[in-house]
Every structure is written in structure tokens, then in C-alpha cells.
């Protein structure tokens, strides 16, 4: 009996030892061979700037440029000067060149959706080509992000943005091919200037220079060398403190500029036909990038009363691609009629079909804005 108990105990112990060894073997050899998928979900520890950068990286370059262009404005003065500027903060403050708004206390600011607003010059330097215009009606709009920590380096890819109305090479692409340039264009002294291969056309002065990788403002486009096809940009880091001082404490009086007493030769106010064509082009750009809010806002009040935004957006749900060409313009009284050929890619019963139509737009004014007050479509 004792012998039998000892044999049972021996086999029980052997079984326990074998089980333990097996467990360790499975853990080391089997479990170790299983590769666990890593989670790539955004950590809550990412700050808002990192999340914004990641979100921007998901956008295509064209979408990023389209989004940035909505924050660029055209500036007009009573003397006829035309330039560009960009939203600096959510208070409606716009950064531009001093030579664009020289001798003007009030200016007209035109946004990408053709809205016209009065702006007040709240800061301007008589030695550095920088100024700030405040437009109270633009408060609450999302501004461009300003790069405050890094200077532009040689070979950095850049985008020079200008007038949103598209008449002066709205976007030019290039790179930084020179830094720390110095020159004088009376009465302004330009120091530590970035030289870029992206040209700056007349009327684009005051627009932002963006780093093409981050889409942040790194400079203010200010001058050009047309013979060499070069542009010159004031590094935003050098003037951001001055800009902020005007934002915090607007100037009570503005300096006078004798050099800009006459109307600039570069002034070229867009014609009514050009403005109308811009509205139509901007309408299709908005649709192409899925910005149905902007596209809907370009429609006249009668259309919006008859068609809700939800119904309007739903009508484009199965149109992944849309573009226009061959515009024909006809002025009818105080309105402009534009015929365009429109190419659509439509999803019909899970099939992609390329369709061509002829659209007729009627562009007119409503509340000081150009609107699409009529639109018809027929097969081409």
C-alpha cells in the first residue's frame, strides 16, 4: 500500500513538473512568436498643434492651398493701390505691406468669397514695410498659422500666395535660394530678407509666404526682381513683435508717406467681368474640394430660400470630381452672364460615368457681394 502511494505521488509530481515546464515553453516559444498589432490611434497626449499638423498632412497639396487661400484677402485704397494681406488672428486683424496701405486710414478688404468690408489701418511702420488692418466683420474667422520658432533655410520649399481674386498669379511655387539679403526701397529698409524663386507679381505684395511642408506663414511677400524672376519676403519672425504691439495697442496717428502721394502705376482694378468669372471659378473649386458651405454661400438669396443647405449638399454626394473650362462672358445690363463647359464624374449605380454639361450662370450683386443669382444646366 505504501509502495503504491509512493508511485502515485511520484507520477503526480512528474505531471505537475511537466505542466509547469510546458507552460513556460508555450509562453517563451509560442506566445513570443505572436506579433501583436501596434495601435496607431492618436494619443490623447498629442497637443493640438501636432493634431493639426497630422490633419494637414492628410490633405492633398491642392486642398491645403485652397484652405489657405480662404484666409488671404485683397486690399484696395481710395488712391487706387491694390495689394494682398492675410488673416493674422481671430480678431479680424490682417497683416500686409506698409506700401500697400500708405496714406490710407481706411481701406476696402475683399475676401475670397467676394465679400467687401471696410478696414481700419491700426498699425504701420515708416521704416519697415509692414502694416496691420483691422476688419471687425472678419472677427471669428480662422487665421493662418504663423511660424514663430524657425527661420526659413536655403532650399526650403515655399508657396507665395497673393490676391484671392486670381488676377495676379494667385499662387506661385518655389524655394528659398537666398537669406539675409539687404536693400533699400525708399522709405523702407529691408534687412535679413529671404530671397525666393517664387515670383511676386504686382498686386500680390503683402500676401503670405508659406512653408510648403507645414503651410505656416514664414514671411510677408514684399518686393520682386522681375528681370531675375525672384521675389523677396520679410521673415515673419523679425516683425511679429511689432505686429503684436499694434494688435494690442493700435496707433493713434499714422505716418505720412510722400513717396506714395500719387496713385501707383501697378494698380489694376479687376473688371466686373473678371470678378464674375472669378466667382464661377471659385464656385467649382469649392465643389471640387468638398467645401459645400462656401459653394452654397455663393448662391443668391432666392436659391437659398428655395433649397436648403442639406438638400444642396446631398445633390453633390455622388459627384467626386467636377471642373469647368471654355468660359464665354456676356454683360447684360448690370449683370454678367457666363457660359462654361463643365466636366463631372458621377457615381451612378456603382459605376463612374464622365459627363459633360453646359452651364449658364448669371452673376449679380446682393448686399455688396457678387452672387450666383441664376444657374441653368443642359447636356453638352
List keywords for this structure.
380 residues; serine protease; serine-type endopeptidase activity; Nuclear Transport Factor 2, Chain: A; 6-stranded antiparallel β-barrel; Thrombin, subunit H; alpha+beta; Peptidase_S1_PA
Descriptive overview:
Among the domains are: 51-138, Trypsin-like serine proteases (Thrombin, subunit H); 272-379, Roll (Nuclear Transport Factor 2, Chain: A), CATH 3.10.450.100. The protein contains 9 helices and 16 strands. It has 380 residues and is an alpha+beta fold. It holds the Pfam family Trypsin_2. This is Serine protease. InterPro entries: Chloro_Bact_Ser_Proteases, Peptidase_S1_PA, Peptidase_S1C.
Write the layout of secondary structure elements.
Layout: H1 2-30, H2 48-58, H3 61-69, E1 72-76, E2 82-87, E3 93-96, H4 98-101, E4 106-110, E5 116-124, E6 131-134, E7 157-161, E8 171-185, E9 188-196, E10 208-211, E11 217-225, E12 230-235, H5 236-248, H6 272-288, H7 292-297, H8 301-306, H9 309-314, E13 321-332, E14 335-348, E15 351-366, E16 369-379
Antiparallel strand pairs: 1-2, 1-4, 2-3, 3-6, 4-5, 5-6, 7-8, 7-10, 8-9, 9-12, 10-11, 11-12, 13-14, 14-15, 15-16
Pfam families: Trypsin_2 (PF13365)
Keywords: Hydrolase, Protease, Serine protease
Protein name: Serine protease
Short description:
Pfam families: Trypsin_2 (PF13365). The protein is an alpha+beta fold and 380 residues long. It is built from nine helices and 16 strands.
Amino acid at each position: 500500500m505504501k509502495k503504491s502511494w509512493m508511485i502515485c505521488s511520484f507520477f503526480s509530481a512528474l505531471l505537475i513538473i511537466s505542466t509547469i515546464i510546458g507552460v513556460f515553453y508555450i509562453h517563451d516559444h509560442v506566445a513570443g512568436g505572436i506579433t501583436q498589432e501596434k495601435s496607431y490611434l492618436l494619443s490623447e497626449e498629442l497637443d493640438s498643434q501636432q493634431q493639426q499638423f497630422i490633419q494637414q498632412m492628410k490633405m492633398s497639396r491642392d486642398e491645403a492651398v485652397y484652405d489657405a487661400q480662404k484666409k488671404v484677402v485683397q486690399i484696395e485704397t481710395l488712391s487706387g493701390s491694390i495689394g494682398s494681406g492675410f488673416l493674422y488672428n481671430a480678431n479680424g486683424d490682417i497683416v500686409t505691406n506698409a506700401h500697400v496701405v500708405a496714406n490710407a486710414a481706411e481701406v476696402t478688404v475683399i475676401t475670397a468669397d467676394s465679400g467687401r468690408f471696410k478696414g481700419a489701418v491700426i498699425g504701420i511702420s515708416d521704416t519697415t514695410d509692414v502694416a496691420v488692418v483691422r476688419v471687425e466683420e472678419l472677427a471669428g474667422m480662422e487665421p493662418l498659422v504663423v511660424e514663430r520658432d524657425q527661420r526659413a533655410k536655403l532650399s526650403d520649399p515655399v508657396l507665395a500666395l497673393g490676391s484671392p481674386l486670381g488676377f495676379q498669379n494667385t499662387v506661385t511655387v518655389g524655394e528659398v535660394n537666398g537669406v539675409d539679403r539687404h536693400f533699400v526701397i525708399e522709405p523702407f529698409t529691408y534687412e535679413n530678407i529671404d530671397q525666393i524663386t517664387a515670383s511676386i507679381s504686382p498686386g500680390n505684395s503683402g500676401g503670405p509666404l508659406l512653408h510648403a511642408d507645414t503651410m505656416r506663414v514664414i514671411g510677408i511677400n514684399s518686393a520682386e526682381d522681375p528681370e531675375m524672376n525672384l521675389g523677396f519676403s520679410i521673415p515673419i519672425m523679425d516683425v511679429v513683435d511689432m505686429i503684436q504691439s499694434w494688435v494690442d495697442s493700435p496707433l493713434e496717428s499714422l505716418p505720412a508717406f510722400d513717396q506714395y502721394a500719387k496713385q501707383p502705376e501697378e494698380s489694376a482694378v479687376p473688371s466686373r467681368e473678371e470678378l464674375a468669372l472669378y466667382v464661377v471659378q471659385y464656385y467649382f473649386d469649392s465643389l471640387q474640394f468638398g467645401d459645400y458651405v462656401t459653394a452654397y454661400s455663393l448662391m443668391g438669396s432666392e436659391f437659398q430660400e428655395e433649397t436648403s443647405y442639406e438638400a444642396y449638399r446631398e445633390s453633390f454626394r455622388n459627384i467626386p470630381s467636377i471642373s469647368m473650362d471654355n468660359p464665354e462672358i456676356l454683360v447684360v445690363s448690370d449683370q454678367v452672364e457666363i457660359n462654361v463647359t463643365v466636366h463631372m464624374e458621377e457615381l451612378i449605380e456603382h459605376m463612374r460615368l464622365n459627363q459633360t454639361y453646359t452651364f449658364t450662370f448669371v452673376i449679380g450683386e446682393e448686399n455688396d457681394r457678387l452672387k450666383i443669382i441664376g444657374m441653368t444646366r443642359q447636356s453638352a
